[in-house]
Design brief:
- By secondary structure, the protein is mainly alpha-helical.
- The protein has a domain of 203 residues.
- The chain is 53% helix and 6% strand.
Amino acid sequence: MDSKKFALSTRGLFLQALVLSFAFLSLAQFAETRSTPLNSSEGIVAPPYSSACLRAAVRTPTSACLAANAFTSLQSAFYDPDSNRGWPNTQAWINANTIEVLSNFLEQADSTDWENETATIHSIVDDLFYKSEVGDCRAPVSCESWDDLAWWGLAWLRYYEASGKVHFKYLERSQYIYHYISTHGWVQSCGASYQWGSWSESAYTYQNSIIQALMATFSVRLVHYEGSGFYEQSNLVSHASQLWAWMKQHVIQESNLIFDGLDSWTCKVRPQGGSKVWSYNQGVILEALALLAEHTGDRQYVQDGVDLATAAMSALQNDAENRTLVEKACEPTCNGDQVAFKGILARYLGYFALRDGVPEEVASSIWQFLQIQQKAIWTYARQVDSKGYEIQSLYSMRWDTPGGNLDAGSQTSALDVFTQMMIYDKLQPDSKGSRISKMSLA
């Protein structure tokens, strides 16, 4: 944007004051009606925190404005520059997800409007890269927690891609973490797969869904990168396929929902929580399935992903009319881990919709579903005071009704949805009517 247009002349100051008055008036007017869900024809009022959104005085802002404002509030409310993981009031594995979400924002924010935000992201990630190199596993989590480690490995890989694939250190860190998990977490029980971790008996006797999905996705995401370790490309694909076969045999229900995991002693669903259906378990494996289809040419992987995505969107909505995601296994009392689950599902639904081979009608239904989540988050999760005025751009974990836990995890979850809708907003039809994404996912 041309800075001359905003010169501090008398006329410029008057116009800016008028713009600000209109923005605050719009917020107050919207606050009076926020108890009524938005429909597809209604707008969302931008909270005036990002400089780009403030200058534009947007009545119906883009998803980019919502994401930029949420990021600004994430930093002002929760970021600690002295922490080795950035946002210490939530779980360390969620911090890794925050890096991946910010990487997605970074890649989509290619306008000069977002220079401040992108510069901040680069600075944060570079700082955390060195601070987070802790222990033998080189991550700020327990080296005996395989799923926590995998989130960090995927986060560094995503930032490597989003920042232009020019800083090899991020790829190298990602590959190192993959190798660490592969050589420490594999067990032969129950048909062979990964254990949850090794820090306690409850961890090393639990083969849960999320670590299998993470490592399947991690494997096929690394296929395109030279030196991906210690593993041939064909072996990476084969390993992901093996993990998916294990999941189909052990943790996929007839309803196409994924439950949490098996007890390694009995090879049956663990009585203490193993049968629960968590939203993030339904999402992460979708990326692996789409990539397996691309690498093998087997369309059944895509169909499996379609079945899982369709089942998740149907089963985890509050009702067929409003279609808002609910973490049914814990709401309204979700803990510090669970607050981030829905955003992860939203992210991986978006990734799946972008992949080659996913039917256009399925991709369209996913984007429509994510748009509904964005509007629900703004309507209900946004924090307002007793008069209905916004308290920064902060979002709680409940998307279908006001209330719910609020921390960096719930904020990241909302930001997850906003950044996926940023991607959708940038999709453009090609000559055949297909959509082209500006995403560097391998």
